[in-house]
Amino acid sequence: MVGVSMRALMTMIPLISGCLVNQELYxxxxxALTDAxxxxxxxxxxxxDTDPGRFPGADEVCDDVDQDCDGVADEGAIDQxxxxxxxxxxxxxxxxxSEVACDRPAGFVAQGGDCDDGEPAAWLGAEEVAYDxxxxxxxxxxxxxMDGDGYDGAAAGGEDCNDTRADVSPGxxxxxxxxxxxxxxxGERDLxxxxxxxxxxxxxxxxDELGRRLSILGDVDGDGVDEFMVGAIYESSHxxxxxxxxxxxxxxxxxxxxSPKLFGDSDYAFLSSMAGGVDFDGxxxxxxxxxxxxxxxxxxxxxxVSGATLATVxxxxxxxxxxxxxxxxxxxxxLGGAVGFIGDVDGDGVQDAAVGExxxxxxxxxxxxxxxxxxxxxxxxxxxxxxxxxVSGWFEGGTFGGAFQASGDVDGDGYADYLVGGTxxxxxxxxxxxxxxxxxxxxxxxxxALESGERCDVRMVGDVDADGARDLACLHPDxxxxxxxxxxxxxxxxxxxxxxxxxxxxxxxxxxxIDLGDLDDGGASETLLPVTEHGSVGTSVVAVLFGxxxxxxxxxxxxxxxxxxxxxxxxxxxxxxxxxVERANSLGESLIALGGPGDSAAGADAGGVTFLPVPx
Length: 616
What we know:
- The chain has a domain at 1-76.
- Residues 1-20 have low confidence and may be disordered.
- It is mainly beta.
- The chain has five helices and 37 strands.
- The protein is 6% helix and 29% strand.
- It has a five-stranded mixed β-sheet, with no helix packed on it. Strands 9-5-37-36-35 form a five-stranded mixed β-sheet, with no helix packed on it.
């Protein structure tokens, strides 16, 4: 400072002081050079230099914040919603009337797709309601053809009598398979000309008469499909008329040769009587009861064969593989003429088996007949008199024990009852729960022959009259087919006092019937009626009698039954025996197996078995 005058020094001090005190200019210049939030906009031009999302030109979004610094929040926001007017309040809007806004305007919704904004039940994707006159799903038109068969339902003014099944409509085909339903909507079950037995499994040789006997068995090999048994009474490959029982599975065809087979080991044994489906040895596999009624000069023998053995057998003499054998002791008494599993008749929780000796002499009365009853867990080798319960006939020639069938609890006392066949007394229902039943006195129902020598094979059927109880059928050799109802309270009745009857054409005969259950959900059971040889058409005809309470007191002609099919194999006698195989394939579907001992495809009377589906 040496040499600088005091005047000059005093002049510089104000200039320096002026630079330091112009703060506003300083801040402006600093703001122009500052971008604190790093959004590329200087603090001088940024409405909020602490928020990188807010600056002039930023995209406005719906969050009540002024992103673009124009002083108005959310204006022109890029994420505004398109709202559609919803006048009918169904949550779906009319896409022709819309607004774009961040907040939902009153009366608007975010979901479009309403084709009728005056109808709350209509929007795109709604479940279509049939016959309501509304296009609920907005794809055009009301649903009037629910099953898609091309016919509008009756409720929509159309002709389809069942708009839930595509196989039911005017012009649909009526077949045996769908014959329970009125498929063509004409109000009737049409009489069919359809044929069956185009294929069959046939006997090994001429004269075998395969199919003369049939019985259910059950799934012995564990594959989920039930086996069943077929008898060929005159099969002679190991003994003259020794007879044979074959095991078949499902809907077979071709020859029975090679199928598992048990045969009689002596001439004229006539092995063929059978029953199955009950586990007597406790291994959970169904077992079989077989009989050769003419074994050893007509003494007869019954064989209990385990299902485990049946599952592995190829071909064997039945006596060699039987777990237990009951032998007859009286020549010509024909033990095993009838065998059956008859239910739990004594209430011990164990199924019971019956073996008949229909021509046994009892108290010097020839052919009075008798039978033995065993709980299946008490079976053993022996003779009929070893049975825990032996029931004898009470008059000469009565052949008591000539047929057996479980009848269920007819009298409602909690014990299984059973049907016994004979001569004179054609059928008798023996009550369960009786310790030592007497054939003459212990009876719930007896069907008596009207006259001496009258024959009638009796069968338990379903509840054909819809009274809640099973009924009985009588198959008359002259073709008369009689039904008897009210079994629990009717006592003795004779064959001309039937509840109602089915007449068959002259020269025709029904030899077996089976209960099909309530196929049409009408409250009564349906019954399969096979005519083995129809006198008019010269072949077997199978029909279904639809049970209804109005049948009681009526007579029906077989030819008037609406659901019928004819065999394509003349003189084969299909329907001589019939059973329902419950699990006939891997899908668990049922089949009707029909025996035709007169089938000659493999030689005269080699016999055969053919199949029908259970109608639906």
